[in-house]
Known about the structure:
Layout: H1 6-36, E1 37-42, E2 45-50, E3 56-59, E4 66-70, E5 73-77, E6 83-87, E7 93-98, E8 103-110, E9 113-119, E10 156-162, E11 165-168, E12 181-190, E13 198-212, E14 217-220, E15 232-235, E16 253-263, E17 271-282, E18 287-300, E19 307-320, E20 324-335, E21 342-351, E22 358-368, E23 371-384, E24 389-398, E25 401-413, E26 420-443, E27 450-473
Antiparallel strand pairs: 1-2, 2-3, 4-5, 5-6, 6-7, 8-9, 10-11, 10-15, 11-14, 12-13, 12-15, 13-14, 16-17, 16-27, 17-18, 18-19, 19-20, 20-21, 21-22, 22-23, 23-24, 24-25, 25-26, 26-27
Amino acid sequence: MSILAPDTRAASVVWVVGLAATVACVVGFADVAHAARTLRTEGSALVIATDGAEPLRLELGCGAVSVLESGNAAYVACGRDGYVVVSLAPTPTVVTRSRAEGDVLGFFLVDGEVWVRLARPEARPLGQVRSDSGGAPVVMAPMTRANDAKPEVKEGKVVEIAPGKAIVSLGKNHGVDVSDTMALFARVPALMGPGGGVMRVETLAVGIVTVVADDRAEVALGSNEEVPVGTLAAKTRESPTASLLRPPRTGGHFEVGLGLRPLIPIGTGGFGVVAALSVGYRFQLPIALSFEAIPLAFGFGAEDGVSAIHGGFIGGLSFDGEFFEVGLGLGYVQSADTDVSGFAFAQTARLGPRDGLNVLVKNSFVYRESKFGYGGTSASFFIPLTSRLQLVLQGEGAPDHGFGDLGLRIRAFGNGRHGSWYFTPLVGGGALSGRDDVECAKTDTATGTAFVSTCKKRSTYAGPTVGLTVEWRP
């Protein structure tokens, strides 16, 4: 029996009906929003289902156990592998991959802020452990030796670096073995908007463990890879980042190069040599400066006494990207053949990583008597064979000289950065030409009288070359 007055009961009915309508609207709206996009985990992937479209499967690289959607972000728990944050708009993209202080079981919201649910190992005295068995006998698992189970791997740091390797503060005591893959990374803030507060993992390199001690491990890095002391380290299932065809760009160092190619002319009994010298600096920014003594070529013949001399210099500035380079240069060229002497303008173009698979082309033009003339073209093709060896095919052609070589570029010391030395033995052939004033006999066509005069004589010296190029990055 109700004790409410009639008016009060009527008001209550109206209030209940209004509340039911409000709840229905909210639930209906939620159902519509839920139907528009649903998220679920399947193995190592996040599946995003949208009405009217095929489900999108985004591989996460971890054992996904649960997911929380908040705003335009999805927070995926991956257990002992940590967590992954995915930006859902405009295209689903992994923006953060990180570990936490324990196994990540899931996420939930508190006043609009994302919280993470963790499971961490805990130790207590046996007498303080509460029993949930109600006094019933407890069946104990068979005992195992401590060494039979490896402890859980935790994060460490890079404590020492050397060319091509990094020493980390993780070892056998942390479950690290030879041939494990080790990620070297840094954590930086990720801008996820209000309520984000997450860190983004920036992987610097992933290497292979080659030597392990109790609390130290040596990690081998790829060509041109380097990480600073203090970089975070942890075991990973990611593939090593070392690349034979496209190692990363290096910067912040000088480069010095010297090349010599002796030439033995065939049939003239003379001698020739083609030399090259270069000094440059590659900035951390994609900019490079260079100064080159473009082929210093000299040759002479024992029989005719005609010499061939060519030399010059070019200073250049280039955009030095990781996968291509373009640049311009200015300089001066002097040759025994006056047709190719004067101020020079040069072009440089490279396609492919500098220490990987690439082709490098250079053109030069000579300004003389108020017009430009062709100065020459050189091309080099580098084919990586191993992390330390590159096959080199190169050649150069100009009006007064030319050569072609086959070589093997060897990185003898260093990892491609500071302190690295490269040696390139070369075999091939070349040719030099020159034009000198020589005495010659002439006849006066009017009188038939013979006399001695000065003539221009051109000679070409060609033959095999055997050379060596040395590069140093101090």
